[in-house]
Specification:
Blueprint lengths: L3 H5 L1 H10 L8 H4 L8 H24 L3 H6 L6 H12 L2 H14 L1 H11 L1 H16 L5 H4 L5 H34 L4 H48 L5 H11 L16 H15 L3 H4 L8 H32 L23 H50 L6 H25 L6 H24 L5 H20 L2 H5 L15 H18 L3 H8 L1 H10 L10
Protein name: Cation/acetate symporter ActP
Membrane topology: Multi-pass membrane protein
Organism: Thauera aminoaromatica
Length: 560
């Protein structure tokens, strides 16, 4: 179970728990994790998955001829396929491991957290999905720069995108190494190199086609594995939710409070800031936004959000059942505790609750399958992140800023592949450098940057006529810098990482403070900008509005 100390850190850790695969798993609970004996079932199933995905990559490579194929799978993905892929990006291994552990330790608080995490989807569905598809081509910078200064705005968007991508990548790589050391018995550095190498192969050769199908397969495996464990565990209580909750309350240290909101809402400022980061950060994540350019039209974009929302909602409920079942099945079984002491330290750390439950209800075979799925999850998400980072470098910076839109497709594609390899190497090296660090703050930073730098400028560029280049630049950079500073000065970094006595910034989540700064600065400097260029940018909004509503010209979006 989570100890008191880990609960006191929950504000930074909560975000990490579900937002990024395996972040909680790479937090304090796993710092001391010892390498386990080789899990042959898991390794065998993982290699089956790898061979299958390499086959997909080989097939995808033959279909990846142009930049459109590489970045967006040629816009040929259906709404259902894209919905599965988005869900695959979203349903991370931390969703499985971290939220199950949180449900096991804190009861209904975990479910409240899942709900708050879910609220970001209606924003994307109703405010963004259609306009994203109609206005963009490869990256969200296509939209923010639509009627603004291409070079300056694209550079700002690319910088904030790469910041988000890099912090996410570090989180993935450290989590991968720690989890694989634990589950597979492999060396940490070997795990990093394997993940990095496979990610580079997927993206470099297969582009978005391969990445999409790897994410779809991973999502299906996660759904099958999670459902199997949930059904087998729930069957032990006759599929009666009343019996399950009553027995859980009898044995859990929280007792009746297991089903009452508790520590998560103890600090309302942090809770609100966390909620804002989760809601609007989701709508500003480059690798999520990029998925909307892979579908054929705006209708399919909306469909993909609906399918993704339904899949994620279903999986969250499966996790809730797993967590409650684990309280009795795992929490009352001495074989899952060090020294056989019930209520003591869980073998492998608190985040291994889901794995122990799989072992208890399905033996080594189900445990092996779930372990392989956890590793596959990392590969899929890392591939999506690498593609988002590579597109920011090649499409936004190289093609649009350096070459002023005159780069040929073959050269841009070549730059993308080199960028992917470069990001892969950087991710592996950073993973090695940050092995011992609690990376929860990195994810907090990634979401804070996405919510503060990407989202305000993106949403205002689509909905506000008064936005100018000067406003977008000042607002975007203000959101980026303030989010980074607030996290650096918070307890998560200033005290826990840098070792200072007390935090300068009293809260662990930046979004409540950095988002208003970004919006205010964007509004102020846009309003004050009376230049001729600003007037022309405001007038261009009408044309943008028509395109956003109708999609006319979306097929040839490269010209802007």
């Amino acid at each position: 179970m989570m100890n008191a100390r880990s609960l006191s850190r929950s504000a930074a850790g909560l975000l990490a728990l579900a937002a990024s695969p395996l972040v909680l798993a790479a937090g304090p609970a796993m710092d001391a994790a010892e390498k386990q004996p080789l899990n042959l079932h898991a390794i065998g199933m993982f290699f089956v998955f790898v061979l299958m995905t390499l086959g997909i990559t080989y097939w995808a490579a033959s279909r990846t001829k142009s930049t459109a194929d590489f970045y967006t799978a040629g816009g040929g993905i259906t709404g259902f396929q894209n919905g599965l892929a988005i869900a695959g990006d979203y349903m991370s291994a931390a969703t499985l491991l971290g939220l199950t552990a949180m449900m096991y330790a804190q009861g209904v608080d975990a479910y409240i957290y899942m709900l708050s995490f879910f609220v970001g989807w209606p924003i994307i569905l109703f405010l963004m999905a259609e306009r994203l598809r109609n206005l963009g081509k490869f990256t969200f910078a296509d939209i923010t720069a639509y009627r603004l200064d291409q070079g300056k705005v694209r550079t700002m968007a690319a910088v904030s995108s790469l910041t988000v991508v890099c912090f996410y990548l570090v989180a993935q790589m450290v989590g991968a190494g720690q989890l694989i050391k634990l589950l597979f018995g492999l060396d940490y550095n070997i795990a990093l190199v394997v993940v990095g190498a496979l990610m580079m192969v997927y993206v470099t050769f297969g582009g978005m086609v391969a990445t999409t199908w790897v994410q779809i397969i991973k999502a299906c495996m996660l759904l099958i594995g999670g459902t199997a464990v949930g059904v087998l565990a729930f069957s032990q209580f006759g599929f009666s939710f009343d019996e399950l909750t009553n027995r859980a309350m009898e044995v859990h240290k929280l007792g009746q409070k297991l089903l009452n909101p508790g520590s998560l809402l103890a600090d309302p400022v942090t809770a609100i800031s966390l909620g804002l980061g989760l809601m609007f950060g989701t709508a500003g994540l480059p690798h999520i936004l990029m998925r909307f350019f892979t579908v054929t039209d705006a209708k399919e974009a909306r469909k993909s959000v609906l399918y993704a929302s339904g899949i994620v909602a279903y999986f969250f409920n499966v996790i809730a059942i797993m967590g409650l079942c684990a309280i009795i099945i795992v929490g009352q079984n001495p074989q899952f505790f060090e020294g056989g002491v019930i209520g003591g330290k869980v073998i492998g750390g608190g985040n291994m609750i889901a794995m122990h439950l799989a072992n208890a209800v399905g033996g080594n075979l189900l445990l092996g399958f779930l372990s392989a799925v956890a590793f596959a999850t990392i590969l899929a998400v890392v591939a999506g992140l690498a593609l988002a980072g590579a597109s920011a470098i090649s499409h936004d910076i190289y093609s649009r800023v350096i070459m002023k839109g005159k780069a040929d497709e073959a050269t841009e594609l070549r730059v993308s592949k080199f960028a992917t390899i470069g990001l892969g190497v950087v991710a592996v090296l950073l993973g090695m450098a940050f092995e011992k660090m609690n990376i929860a703050f990195m994810v907090a930073l990634a979401f804070g940057v996405a919510a503060s730098a990407n989202f305000p400028v993106l949403i205002l560029s689509m909905y506000w006529k008064g936005l100018t280049t000067k406003g977008a630049l000042v607002g975007g950079y203000s959101g980026l810098v303030s989010a980074v500073l607030f996290v650096l000065l918070s307890k998560s970094v200033w005290v826990d990482v840098l070792g200072n006595a007390s935090a300068i910034f009293p809260y662990t989540q930046p979004a409540l403070f950095s988002m208003p700064i970004a919006f205010f600065m964007t509004w102020l400097f846009s309003t004050l900008d009376k230049s001729k260029a600003a007037e022309a940018e405001k007038e261009a909004f009408e044309d943008q509005y028509v395109r956003a509503q109708t999609g006319v010209g979306a097929a040839t979006a490269s010209s802007h």
